[in-house]
Amino acid sequence: MHPVLAGFLAALAVGPLVLPEFYVTLLNYIGLYSIVALGLVLLTGVGGLTSFGQAAFVGVGAYTTAFLTTTPAAELPAWLAVFGSSPWVALAVGLVLTAAIALVLGFLTLRLSGHYLPLGTIAWGISLYFLFGNVGFLGGHTGISGIPVLEVFGTELRESRHFYYLIWLVLLGAVWLTRNLLDSREGRAIRALKGGTVMAEAMGVDTARSKTVIFLIAALFACVSGWLYAHLQRFVNPTPFGLHIGIEYLFMAVIGGAANVWGALVGAGVITILKQWLQDVLPTIFGASGNFEVIVFGLLMILVLHRAREGLWPLLTRLVPTRERARSVPAAAPLPRGVQAGNGDLLLEVTDAVKKFGGLVANDRMGLSVRAGEIMALIGPNGAGKSTMFNLISGVSPPTSGSVRFRGEEIAGLTSREIARRGMSRTFQHVRLLPTMTVLENVAIGAHLRGRRGVAAASLHLERSEEAQLLAEAARQIEHVGLAEHMFDQAGSLALGKQRIVEIARALASDPCLLLLDEPAAGLRYLEKQALAGLLRKLRGEGMGILLVEHDMDFVMGLADRVVVMEFGKKIAEGLPEHVQNDPAVVEAYLGGVD
Ligand code: ADP
Ligand code: MG
User: Fold this and answer.
1) DSSP symbol at 532
2) The CATH number of 3-319 is which of 1.10.287, 3.30.310, 1.10.10, 1.10.3470?
3) How far apart are CA 152 and CA 169, in angstroms?
4) Which one of 13, 171, 188, 443 has the largest count of C-beta atoms within 10 Å of its C-beta?
5) What is the pTM of this model?
6) Is 387 near ligand 1, meaning CB less than 6 Å away?
7) 10 — phi, psi (to 5°)?
8) For 342-359, b where at least 16 C-beta lie within 10 A, e where not — what string?
9) Ligand 1 pocket, 142 CB below 6 A?
């Protein structure tokens, strides 16, 4: 354990014994807010999904327990009355209810892209708030009072210093679960969301599922916070669950540092203390009481976004000497491999593929084939339709008509995830690595489909043996492509040529028999191109089939076994590189034209 963390935990433990009541209460609220902000770190900071509506989930947790624990058993439905008015049963009911609401809302809003998702969360944040205020049995705007005290192991949590330990244990437990989750196969899948859906799906990640998972976890954390809040206050009304509080939670995550679990605590701490202080100070300046702190928060948010985009946490960690990260990969049994193709086997066969964008025919009855142990190059001038072809093979966008057969099976119309599972893997024209993750973690994303353990196992770290196998496989592929010395470097710190090679290692980690490379030489310097060509020859020698979509004629000529040339969506030549090079149609269309 880091000495700073140990010191922090020790201070937390003795805090309530030495601090005055006022500060203990303040710490209780910081703890409660941190639990919600932690969910937002996962959802927004890590997963890239912005939600303004978390306060509504806090409200679900708070109102569920308020209602169930204050309503006489006789007035409850029979199935609930059996459990009496226990707050613990109310917590379970609240969690189930929250999960159900989150699943429905997630289904409706998570498919929205760009600004529509935050707008969607605002809409349901407002709706739930008005629901709390207008449903008769929830007490309307007056709310519900007389919520019983919690009892833990026979101790009544009547005083704030008693409640304190429960809140902070829950929070630290949630931090532990979240950290475990992020440091796992499922966590890498969640972090891959920021690399874009196309990349994550190509690595076999079910992005809709990953998004739902983090949405659900964030909602459940908020619900637990609400449950604690209700029993701490012993009174609820709709005010703390409104949209402006939802925005405040987002402030906390962003200002604290939404990319790190501890950022949630920093943000909740800073905002809560600041708010307390501003509420005391501002009225003495402006003379009247009002929500002036909101203006200050707004300014603070702008300042942070301009000056410290990653929030305060990274600034804090700079002050503390960090310890060297583990620089070894644990030994593990190799992962089982899929069925291998024999050298010369036909892997990919595209026939009569047509892709239309409205009136534009981007691919017109295109055909090509790739065998195991050969490099097939698809070349053509800009706008010829190469990327379109690449996308219809890899499942990003299906052909309008025609056939794509992979190892004898028709795959036209399958999703890129289903195609990846069958042994085809790809790289991207514009490198899509996660720049702040290590090379090892980036490559391990490629092995996603070779692991099976889910979110629950990951959160509890019960999947360590599988995780070791996945990391060992990633390390093996990194060595394979010759980047062992960069294994623990941040992917974003490498030169472009090496980043392209990391992408190849990531593709190899999925155990493919066919590699699809989209313009791998674009933007590379001469020596980098040489290194890339050397690697591709080595992979070919090992029996890999490679489809190379390329613009750079010289790069292709020394490397490819066969070449297909296209122009205006049509195939204009096919054959050995030296033949194609001298074909008049090719010279006319490609070599002679403006490059
Ligand atoms: P290349 O990769 O060979 O440069 P592309 O496959 O990207 O060519 O593009 C081929 C043609 O299809 C171009 O005219 C391009 O404008 C058009 N095109 C590509 N993608 C789309 C799309 N999603 N919608 C409409 N037109 C597209
Ligand atoms: Mg292109």
Assistant:
1) H
2) 1.10.3470
3) 13
4) 443
5) 0.91
6) yes
7) -65, -45
8) eeeeebbbbeebbbeeee
9) no
What digits encode the pLDDT tens for the residues 436-454?
A: 899 999 999 999 999 999 9
Pocket mutation for ligand 1, best pick of 360, 397, 552 (most atoms within 8 Å of C-beta):
360
Per-residue pLDDT of 398-429, as tens digits, reads 999 999 999 999 999 999 999 999 999 999 98
**Identity of residue 92:** A
Can you give the residue ranges of every domain in the chain? 3-319, 344-423+512-595, 435-511
Question: What is the CATH code for 344-423+512-595?
Answer: 3.40.50.300
Contacts of 580 (CB under 8 A, 6+ apart): 563, 565, 573, 574, 586
Cβ-based burial of 20 (10 A; exposed 0-12, middle 13-18, buried ≥19): exposed
Question: Distance between CA atoms of 498 and 279, rounded to whole angstroms?
Answer: 53
Sheet holding 409-410, edge to edge: 360-371, 346-357, 401-406, 409-410
**125 Cβ contact partners less than 8 Å away, ≥ 6 residues apart:** 52, 53, 54, 55, 56, 242, 243, 246
